Amino acid sequence: MSEWLIDGPGGAAVTVVLAHGAGAAMDTPFMTHIAGGLAAAGHRVVRFEFPYMARRREDGKRRGPDRQETLLGCYREVVAAVRERWPGTVAIGGKSMGGRMASLVADELGARGLLVLGYPFHPPGRPERPRVAHLAALSTPALILQGERDPFGRPDEVAAYELASTIAVTWVPDGDHSFKPRKRSGETEAGNLDRAVAASAAFLARLA
Asked: Which fold has domain 5-189+200-205?
């Protein structure tokens, strides 16, 4: 199991486990901003890396994600270890692929909540290949934060999916897959990240 990055107060009522996306590690500026903002709001944030990303950190070689069963097994192990260390309310989630993996085990693990930062509803340019079947029956309360210009799922596409009533989708103004807007939109990347933090922190607070 890879090393963790832990942010937030020692007495936090909620611990949220966040996994990274397919191509970037747990300590990207995006992940660091989100983790820092949630920690400042009083939540404990545990970031971890899947085996392939941990190996990249060791040898510097870029490689694709592990098989799904490996990713899910890793997520289960991390959540079990987190619960052993911090009994109490545990939510899970992550960026893109990491959030999707969390969504696949959220009900199984009895997570109090699911937080997804840019869900990959379909591969870019391939809306005919949706990754949403399991979301129709999700019983875990969930918040998906999605950029309005996200090529993995835009508003009109997501509106057509059958999503469980437990899932709330909040749209980040003019944001791409990492919530970055175009300059002409009048929005800023920092502003959108702060919006994401505020929405996420409020969601987690309701789980305590």
From this structure: Rossmann fold (3.40.50)
